[in-house]
Specification:
Chain B: This is YdbS-like PH domain-containing protein. Chain B: Pfam families: bPH_2. Chain B: Keywords: Membrane, Transmembrane, Transmembrane helix. Chain B: InterPro entries: UCP026631, YdbS-like_PH. The structure holds two protein chains of two kinds. Chain A is an alpha+beta fold. Chain A folds into two domains: about 60 residues; about 80 residues, PH-domain like (Roll). Chain A has four helices and seven strands, in the order βααββββαββα. The model of chain A has no long low-confidence stretch (mean pLDDT about 90). Chain B has four domains: about 170 residues, no CATH class; about 70 residues, no CATH class; about 170 residues, no CATH class; about 55 residues. Chain B is about 40% helix and about 25% strand. In chain B, β2 and β3 form a beta hairpin. The longest helix of chain B is centred in the middle third of the chain and has 28 residues. The chains are: A alpha+beta, B alpha+beta. At the A-B interface, β3 and β4 of A face β18, β19 and α18 of B. β4 of chain A pairs antiparallel with β18 of chain B.
């Protein structure tokens, strides 16, 4: 096993390979809208061209770079694992996050499916605790797997007493 | 009936039939207060017209007319609110129905109640009324007061608090029970007083940027009021001195100084009226003890914080005030709002840090206060990261200024040099921020300290931790640093040890929350850590 940046092993499961497609689409759409608006402004507002031009170039280069790098990088990083005692997930790319929440402190387990995720048959698993900052989100899971994990977690959570605060 | 405009943290489950408990109105004295308010708000306009012969025109009377209208409508609206409001306390719920156009029915399960506060404005004090605020909620950072009863009589308020906080008998009648009231008043020998107001604290609260804002408001108000009654304040000021001879520069200096003095005096008066007879004490109740603060001259405020929900203490030292040895002290507690203007989490007025530390130790009741422990400094490389950010911020500002000068002809060509002037400030802040960093684990508390503008030291109980997050950016990875964040239901929701040695990050979290990370560690550790499982969680499972 390669040297880990911090003293935690990676979680057991990778996310689906289709998630790469999801991130590419999200990035393309997001930057597409931004670049589209800027282009429209550039064409319509003549006097503003001198400063809109450089911004447009920066956004285009930035967007292309992110779209090329981010999805593969995320796929390499994103992992998740559920044990009898805890939920453990690693997400992020430039900034990486390792999140662990004990089962006894879990309040809700949701699966979220946006339009893009539905098209790719993916889902985001979201596990929340009593903390307003503590939600664990695992995007890019297979929809069926996510639903199964959510159902299992709900069962385990019910067995564990406590008011989760 | 069912319309509830905001999904509050308090759960709004269907209420079981508790028909035998009658609904009650707010106190009838509210009607008299509202009527008096309506009449009184018409007085200034009346006086101006009758005694000073002021013309009723928008130009001269504008503000006073607006004030009158607001007062009259406010009074009438409040009357309507009284007519439409009912509340009751059943065995399981506190319920309130209110609203004319949007009917609102709010119920809070009694076991979710985290705090019951009473407060009184001057009009309430004069009429023996109190406003009761019942606080509940799982996401403490959302910070909404769940239910307010404005207003009931003093004895009713005390009885409600006794019942709701300490699980007394449910209220069955509107008749006050004198016994319950005497029980509510704690015997003096059971009361542990931690702090009282000291006059010298005013010094810490007098000097602030707000002084100028406050003075501006005061002076503007006075100016309008005087003008309304046909006086000429501007002419009076002009006649005070020969401003032409003094010169513009000195006039400005004198004006700023005067405004500053007015503001400082105003802040001092404000501090005393707000914190008059401030007392912080631990008072016994049926369900354990509560931490109680009482304060206020015209508007008294009493806040009770259930000790069962206490999870830690935080001391904040804002940059300039830190050098005066000043600090704000707040408790980290579930269900207390952090973001409100009068934060109930704050247990001391702004005062000396020595008092803050002593009180923190007494509140936490540990042998040696975790906040007094020596903190481990973070690696020197954390300073490099901060200096990097400081230089980057300076460069970005300078670059933007330079770019703007090429775009806008009117800007002088060397404005971008001003951006470089930021460098000493940002670099100084970087050093300050680095020196703030520290952490330790002691006596079941995780203590973290950070902050450039405001240095915050927080001590959080291990058992309050509901999750652990490690964060590492590419730069942090290169510098072998990582940020350890523990999440919790109390206070701000999360507390961080920023930029610790990456090799020690997991160790730190493992000591703060024993057992949780054992299964996920990369290097095998002896199973000793497993012996100490997270403390058993109290209370019942959430349905």
């Amino acid at each position: 096993m390669a040297e880990q940046p911090i003293d935690l092993r990676p979680p057991e499961h990778r996310v689906e390979r289709r998630a790469i497609g999801l991130w590419v689409l999200q990035s393309v759409i997001g930057f597409g809208i931004l670049a589209g608006l800027l282009t429209a402004a550039y064409l319509i507002i003549g006097p503003a061209r001198s400063w809109l031009g450089p911004i447009l170039v920066v956004v285009a280069v930035w967007g292309a770079g992110v779209t090329l790098v981010m999805p593969l990088w995320r796929y390499a990083v994103h992992r998740w694992e559920v044990t009898e005692e805890a939920v453990y997930a690693v997400t992020g790319w430039v900034v990486r996050e390792w999140r662990v929440a004990p089962i006894s402190r879990i309040q809700t387990v949701d699966t979220i499916r946006g339009p893009l995720e539905q098209a790719l048959n993916l889902a985001t698993l979201e596990v929340t605790t009593a903390s307003s900052r503590g939600a664990i989100k695992v995007p890019g899971m297979d929809a069926a797997v996510a639903a199964q994990v959510a159902a299992d977690l709900a069962k385990i959570t019910q067995r564990t007493p406590g008011d989760a605060t | 009936m069912t319309a509830d405009p905001e999904p509050v943290a308090a759960d709004l489950q269907p209420v079981p039939a508790g028909d035998e408990v009658p609904w009650q109105r707010l106190d009838t004295r509210v009607v008299w207060v509202d009527s008096a308010k309506t009449v009184l708000s018409m007085v200034p306009a009346g006086v101006a017209v009758v005694f000073f012969g002021a013309e009723i025109s928008w130009g001269t009377m504008g503000p006073i007319l607006v004030g009158t209208a607001v007062g009259v409508f406010g009074g009438l609206a409040d009357l309507l609110r009284w007519v439409k409001t009912r509340y009751r306390v059943t065995d399981e719920y506190v319920e309130r129905r209110t609203g004319l156009l949007v009917r609102q029915h709010r119920s809070i399960r009694r076991d979710r109640i985290r705090s019951v506060d009473t407060s009184a404005k001057l009009r309430h004090k004069l009429t023996g009324l109190r406003v009761v605020t019942v606080g509940a909620g799982q996401h403490s950072a959302a910070g909404e007061a769940a239910l307010t009863l404005d207003a009931v009589r003093v004895d009713t308020a005390q009885r409600l608090r006794q019942e709701l906080l300490y699980g007394g008998p449910a209220e069955r009648t509107s008749e006050p029970e004198p016994q319950a009231v005497t029980e509510a008043a704690p015997r003096p020998d059971d009361e542990q007083v931690f702090a009282r107001l000291e006059r010298s604290w005013v010094v810490y609260n007098m000097f602030s940027v707000w002084a100028f804002l406050m003075a501006a408001g005061l002076l503007w108000g006075t100016y309008w009021a005087l003008q309304m009654f046909g006086l000429d304040p501007a002419g009076f000021v002009r006649g005070l001195a020969d401003w032409e001879a003094i010169g513009t520069a000195w006039t400005v200096v004198i004006a700023v100084a005067t405004v500053g003095v007015v503001g400082v005096v105003g802040l001092a008066i404000n501090f005393f009226t707000e914190n008059w007879r401030f007392v912080l004490a631990r008072v016994p109740g049926d369900r354990g003890t509560v931490l109680r603060t009482t304060q206020g001259l015209f508007k008294t405020r009493e806040v009770n914080r259930d000790d069962n929900r206490l999870r830690g203490v935080q001391i904040d030292e804002p940059l300039l005030w830190r050098w005066m040895g000043m600090a704000d002290t707040t408790v980290i507690s579930t269900g207390l709002s952090i973001w409100s203007m009068t934060p109930s989490a704050q247990i001391l007025p702004r005062g000396p840090v020595s008092v803050a530390r002593r009180v923190a130790a007494q509140v936490l009741e540990t042998g040696e206060s975790p906040l007094d422990r020596p903190l481990r400094p973070h690696p020197r490389r954390a300073l490099r990261r901060r200096v990097g950010w400081a230089l980057l911020a300076t460069a970005v500002v300078t670059g933007l200024l330079a770019w703007l000068t090429t775009l806008i002809d009117a800007m002088p060509g060397h404005v971008w040099l001003a951006g470089l002037g930021l460098a000493p400030v940002t670099l100084a802040l970087a050093v300050v921020a680095y020196r703030s960093l520290g952490h330790t684990v002691a006596d079941g508390y995780l203590v973290t300290r950070s902050g450039a503008w405001s240095r915050s030291t927080a001590a959080l109980q291990s058992r309050a931790v509901v999750g652990v997050t490690f964060r590492q950016s590419l730069l942090q990875r290169r510098l072998r640093l990582a940020t350890v964040q523990v999440t919790t239901a109390a206070g701000y929701g999360s507390y961080e040890a920023i930029d610790v040695e990456s090799a020690e990050a997991v160790d730190l979290a493992d000591r703060a929350v024993p057992g949780l990370l054992t299964a996920f560690r990369a290097t095998a550790t002896e199973p000793a850590g497993r012996a100490a499982e997270p403390a058993a969680v109290e209370l019942q499972a959430r349905p």
